[in-house]
Write a structure and sequence with these properties.
single chain, alpha/beta, Rossmann fold, 8-stranded mixed sheet, 4-stranded antiparallel sheet, 12 strands, globular, binds adenosine-5'-triphosphate, binds iron/sulfur cluster, binds magnesium ion
Length: 315
């Protein structure tokens, strides 16, 4: 079975209207999906939904299947067995996964021991290998450090090492390279590629850095106000963006693929989840809106993806 993730009609609300809206998404083994869109579009919320770790008070509807199993029907024990092992996340902000009260080494070693039948010394060797792989200098000494004793970039690397150490089949990386310098970024991108190719995993990479997306991903989904408005193979999306929102985002980037290329800011703001516009959610900001856009635009299938815009609907 090659399907890793299958999301159907996922809707998430924090009480003021949905921030993820009837979202459908599929990932097969080997897929590395870049998830892009302005701040507040719901990217992180989508990630936490997949892990089943939304804050209390959030309401979630729809289906999420991971390797064929309905994630929402798992009990606490089965979910804990999955998290950190076959399903892992590198949280936004780098250090979010690290407990400030425990030494770095203990955190990684305990993660390994919770999921693998190995001895403590084998687990320690695995932790060291992984810290070395993400470019942590003097990893032996770092095992004894507490998170606050490390720089932000170093904590981000530890967080990456922890997520990768058990070769997850699905990795969700939320702005994974934002605190890293260019050399370490290249090293970490190479690690992700290895994970995906050698271990037949899949990944969702949330990033504002289009260079990272161009280098790492084979597909891209563009999110706007809780919906995927365009999905396409990476080369095609950059060469020939179809949705007016994607075009606006990419307009300021003539030399895509350069590291550090950030998403453009475009005029106007993302709609308030509590009072979205009628019809197409992008309509108030869309340079090519027309009367028909007052109705909800259809999802129009395209080779390798699709686009949510009336201008691409047949007829
Ligand atoms: N715990 C929460 N309680 C209430 N609202 C929330 C909570 N977390 C996020 N939101 C709201 O949900 C929406 C989506 O937020 P989310 O963090 O998923 O966006 P994002 O695309 O990850 O943004 P960014 O690029 O800034 O990380 C926003 O309107 C945000 O204000
Ligand atoms: S449906 Fe209309 S408003 Fe929405 S993106 Fe397409 S053209 Fe613009
Ligand atoms: Mg986010």
């Amino acid at each position: 079975m090659s399907e890793v993730l299958d999301i159907e009609a996922l809707t998430v609300t924090y009480g003021r209207g949905p921030v993820v809206r009837a979202l459908w998404l599929r990932l097969a083994r080997g897929d590395v999906l870049g998830l892009v869109g302005e701040s507040g579009c719901g990217k992180t919320t989508l990630g936490w939904s997949i892990l089943g770790l939304l804050p209390s008070g959030a309401r979630m509807d729809g289906t999420i299947r991971f390797e064929g199993a309905d994630l929402r029907s798992l009990d606490g024990r089965d979910r804990r067995r999955l998290l950190g092992d076959r399903l892992a996340m590198i949280p936004q902000g780098g250090s979010g996964a690290l407990d400030p009260l425990y030494r770095i080494g203990d955190q990684i070693v305990e993660t390994i021991l919770a999921h693998r039948h190995v001895s403590r010394s084998e687990a320690r060797a695995m932790a060291l290998r992984q810290l070395r792989a993400v470019g942590i200098p003097d990893p032996e000494a770092r095992l004894a450090s507490y998170p606050h004793e490390l720089s932000g970039g170093m904590r981000q690397r530890v967080s990456i090492a922890t997520a990768l150490v058990l070769n997850p089949s699905l990795l969700i990386a939320d702005e994974p390279t934002s605190a890293l310098d260019v050399t370490i970024q290249a090293q970490v991108l190479a690690l992700f590629r290895d994970l995906i190719h050698e271990h037949a995993g899949a990944a969702i990479v949330i990033s504002h850095d289009l260079g990272v997306v161009a280098q790492l991903c084979n597909r891209v989904a563009v999110m706007y106000a809780g919906q995927i408005v365009e999905e396409a193979p990476v080369d095609q999306l950059f060469a020939e963006p179809r949705h007016p929102y994607t075009r606006s985002l990419l307009a300021a980037h003539p030399a895509l693929g350069r590291r550090g290329d950030r998403l453009a800011t475009i005029p106007g703001t993302v709609p308030d989840p509590a009072s979205p516009p009628a019809g197409c959610l992008f309509r108030p900001r869309c340079p090519v809106a027309m009367a028909a856009c007052c109705r909800e635009p259809p999802w129009v299938e395209q080779p390798g993806g699709g686009v949510r815009c009336v201008r691409h609907a047949a007829g």
